[in-house]
Amino acid sequence: MIRRLISIVTLIIAIGGVSYAQTATETVDFGSFSGISASEGFSVRLVKAGSFSVTSEVDTLIRDYVEVYANGGIVYLDYDRKGLPSEIKKVYRGRRSADPVLKVTVSCPRIESINLSSATLDATSFENDPRSFSLVASGSSEVTGLDVKCNSALFNLSGSSRVSASVEADEIDVSTSGSSKIGLSQMSKKLVVSSEGTSGPTIEGVCDEVEIEASGSSKPSVSGTTESLSIKSSGVSSKVQTGSLKAKSASVTSTGGSSVHVNASDALRVDITGASVYFDGSPALEIVRVSKGTLMPEGTSATPTQRQGRRGKASRNSSGDEGAKAEDNAPVTITDPTTV
Q1: How far apart are CA 192 and CA 271, in angstroms?
Q2: Using CA atoms, how far apart are residues 111 and 130, in angstroms rounded to an integer?
Q3: Are 285 and 326 within 8 A, CB to CB?
Q4: Torsion of CA 126, 129, 130, 135, to 10 degrees
Q5: 298: helix, coil or strand?
């Protein structure tokens, strides 16, 4: 009888095209936890508190199919969509029907790990200070207002995830793939960036050392200041934008159809095969190789005549290949593109 009544109510709602389901709220107090793992559809909010608790607000229709539990120090937020009865599924299938309410407030002193699968997280006003921190975001996840101070921080984004964060750490590791995006303001001793697919990490701040590896059609952009910069780029159309990152010394290895924009004041080492490197500043140039590629100052362009190329003094590099190298590593100003 109850099941039949639910079917009638949900059918009326589905026909109307609008979900009028009520919500149920429940708070669970945990002894402690260090991480969160949220599945698709959850909207999570972090709240700074001296104790550990999780408050959930979900549609009463799906209450029995939502689980909030802790295991191994991780709070899991699960929603069993596949287990829903057909009459309940109809409520959320209509063209004008609303998504189910899956709101969760997580209260804790700090958090060390966050794993999101097409979920959203609001960390506004939550100052997080763990020893180490990691964020894994996949699917269509979205994170806003993240503020972290720690020894080491790891960001791993995939799918179409979007993340906005501010981090102060000794070491920061950022990995992006798919079409994911991250906007990161940072201060660190070492920043490592790896981008694939069409992803586009945008990072600004101050650090001692920066390492960037880009492939596919990714477009990493890093600005600010650093002592040393290392770039490895490949792929048909990857584009590394570090022209606004003021480095003292830089090393660029670029292949394929990729392009790199770099700014170095003291020294620049390049190894180019089929790629384009544009540089700003007046660094001492060490040209290991420029093969079927282009090396030129920022703001200039190659003409058909210039593309016939010119070489510096030939020398042997460590691999035994012939290359062009500035004598005595003295400052060199290139007024023509160097192409081979």
Answers
A1: 20
A2: 6
A3: yes
A4: 50
A5: coil
The pTM assigned to this predicted structure is: 0.84
> What CA–CA distances, in Å, run from 336 to 258, 273, 295, 308?
20, 18, 9, 11
CA nearest 250: which of 300, 285, 288? 285
Q: Is residue 105 a contact partner of residue 122, using CB atoms and an 8 Å limit?
A: no
How far apart are alpha carbons 311 and 153 in whole angstroms?
43
Helix boundaries (H) for the chain: 2-16, 86-89
Q: Is there a contact between 130 and 149 (Cβ–Cβ < 8 Å)?
A: no
- Min mean pLDDT across 14-18, 208-212, 309-313 is at 309-313
Domain spans of the chain, in order of start: 18-128, 151-340
Q: 2-33 pLDDT, tens per residue? A: 333 444 444 444 434 444 459 999 999 988 99
The CATH architecture that domain 18-128 belongs to is 3 Solenoid (2.160)
- pLDDT for res 301: 63
Q: Tell me the residue type at 340.
A: V
DSSP state of 283: P
For residues 121 and 112, give the distance between their C-alpha atoms in angstroms, rounded to a whole number.
14
* Integer Cα distance of 233 and 113 in angstroms: 30
Whether residue 211 contacts residue 192, with contact meaning beta carbons closer than 8 Å, is answered with yes
What would the pLDDT profile of 245-274 be if each residue is shown by its tens digit?
A: 999 999 999 999 999 999 999 999 999 999
Do 312 and 334 meet the contact criterion of CB atoms below 8 Å apart?
Answer: no
Two tokens, residue 77: 């937020």
Q: How far apart are CA 265 and CA 144, in angstroms?
A: 35
CA-CA distance, 90 to 246, in Å (whole number)? 56
CATH architecture of 151-340: 3 Solenoid (2.160)
Give the count of alpha carbons within 13 A of 257, CB side only.
5
d(CA 79, CA 100): 10
